[in-house]
Structure formats: C-alpha cells, structure tokens
C-alpha cells in the first residue's frame, strides 16, 4: 500500500523547505553548491509502532501483510497491514541454532535477507561476532513467512580468520536468465558473489567461483558491506553501505550504489569509477536527525521500488527507514 499522502506526512513531521530532487546527479550538484546537509536527501517515510529494526529486510506476504525481518534474537519480526504501523510479532526461529555455536552464537543472528520464490519464503542470515571474519551464512525456508514457521537448513557458505573476505550480509537475487546468485561481504576484501543451486539453496557445485564486486582502499579501513543487488531498467544495481555502522549517534553509515549490465559486474558509479576501486554514488547519508542510514535492502512493492534501511536519531536506538526509489533520466536511483 502507498505511504500516507504528503499532507498527512507533513502533519507528523516538522515542516521544512528543500529543493525538489530531479535526478541523482543534479541533486548531488545542488547539495554541493547550495544546500545545507539537512537538505541533501528526503527524510525517512513516516512509520510508527515498534520500528526498532536493524539491517531490515521487508517482504509482502501472500495475504497482503508486510513482514520486516531484522538482526538479533533469532531474527526479529515485525508486521504491518499498511506499511506504516508496525508491531513486533516474535522471531523467525523458535529455538537456538546449535550448528552456529562455532561462530560465536546460537541466537544472535544478523542481517537476514528474505524473499519469496515458488510459493515459499527463503531466508539467508549471518552468524558471526564483531570484528571477526570467522563467519557463516545460513539458509532457512518457510511456507508462510510467519514467526515460528521457519525450517533451518544450516550453513551455506563460510569464512575463517585465514580468509581475506567475510561471509556475512547475504542477499539472494534471481537474474534475468533465472539463475540464482548470493552476494555477501563486509570489510576485508569487500563484496563477493557466488552462484546458488535453486534445488538446495546452497552453492552451485558446477560453479564454485567467488566473484569480486566491490571493495575500498585500506586507507578508509575497507568499510563496505551490506550488499543488495536489484534489477531494474535493464541494469543490475548494487547497493552497499560505506563507513561505520552500529555506533548510535556516532554512526557514519551511508548508502551507495553502482550498476552493471551483467550480474557478475563490473559495477560502475555515475562517473564510471569501478566499485572494486572504491566507486559508488551516495544516495543517502547523515543529515539533521537522520544519522548513519544503511544496512539496506530493496523491495519491489505494488506502488514501486522501496529502499528499506535502518538509521539512528540523536536521542535513541536504531529505527526503521523506508523511502520510495525513483530513477532519473539516466537510470540512476534516488530517494523520494
């Protein structure tokens, strides 16, 4: 369902004046030349209720209700009938996952990615600990997406302290040819991609290659994570988060995008810079009371594409952010 009308939203927000966003590139130029930081990007869309969601992934279920899945507590779940008012409804899993104890936790599951294919719901999730790449990605399925209906299928992919990548922050995409792929990655050597077998949900045995999609120079601590690939307008768009997460009002997260005609890349930004060399167009960043927006996913709803993410305010913990995505005349996404 669409967001409340602009008039309704303004009753819930302090009024302010900002320039209309015309295109991603012209908006960036306007910000650099004339605007204050508070005018750079639209505010998060109005949501209410239990909206303390970190690394959110949202799906619309077959019955029309929305589910938001997020980090912690066996994958926290919230639901809404109108995409505005959200309630906490429990967790995806009803008991700890014993197999994940080798990665430091059986209950604190991170960064779920949920989608619906072939009449069932699929979830990829992360198990790890801060500042460690002794990590793994797990896989689960559900007939309805509801709390307690998820069956876990264990580990899909992993990394160790001897590897130069980090197997967390998974995202599943089915390409234009019907092939399944999983992107993932955080810090270290950046964002990776592997091919998935639709029959098992795990890596395709006939293609064990690990593709490189994005990285950043060591001078900025290699801070690139939370990949999400979204197909639109004949492009594959790679959304990632740059900089520092999970530090409340001190977070510096921002949402960045590049694109490619091929699912395996290369992904370039609006200037032609390769994301494997630190490229990326910033489409959302700290401004005013919206701090460190990132941990994003993209959802295609009945009224268009949505960017779903978390952010912080000066006063409190993480919050759910939802904005519509639009595309400029050159096909670059921007928030509305």
TrEMBL record:
<dbReference type="GO" id="GO:0031222">
    <property type="term" value="P:arabinan catabolic process"/>
</dbReference>
<comment type="similarity">
    <text>Belongs to the glycosyl hydrolase 43 family.</text>
</comment>
<protein>
    <submittedName>
        <fullName>Arabinan endo-1,5-alpha-L-arabinosidase</fullName>
    </submittedName>
</protein>
<dbReference type="InterPro" id="IPR016840">
    <property type="entry name" value="Glyco_hydro_43_endo_a_Ara-ase"/>
</dbReference>
<comment type="pathway">
    <text>Glycan metabolism; L-arabinan degradation.</text>
</comment>
<feature type="site" description="Important for catalytic activity, responsible for pKa modulation of the active site Glu and correct orientation of both the proton donor and substrate">
    <location>
        <position position="169"/>
    </location>
</feature>
<feature type="signal peptide">
    <location>
        <begin position="1"/>
        <end position="40"/>
    </location>
</feature>
<dbReference type="InterPro" id="IPR050727">
    <property type="entry name" value="GH43_arabinanases"/>
</dbReference>
<dbReference type="InterPro" id="IPR023296">
    <property type="entry name" value="Glyco_hydro_beta-prop_sf"/>
</dbReference>
<keyword id="KW-0378">Hydrolase</keyword>
<feature type="active site" description="Proton acceptor">
    <location>
        <position position="55"/>
    </location>
</feature>
<keyword id="KW-0732">Signal</keyword>
<dbReference type="GO" id="GO:0046558">
    <property type="term" value="F:arabinan endo-1,5-alpha-L-arabinosidase activity"/>
</dbReference>
<dbReference type="Pfam" id="PF04616">
    <property type="entry name" value="Glyco_hydro_43"/>
</dbReference>
<feature type="active site" description="Proton donor">
    <location>
        <position position="225"/>
    </location>
</feature>
<keyword id="KW-0326">Glycosidase</keyword>
<dbReference type="InterPro" id="IPR006710">
    <property type="entry name" value="Glyco_hydro_43"/>
</dbReference>
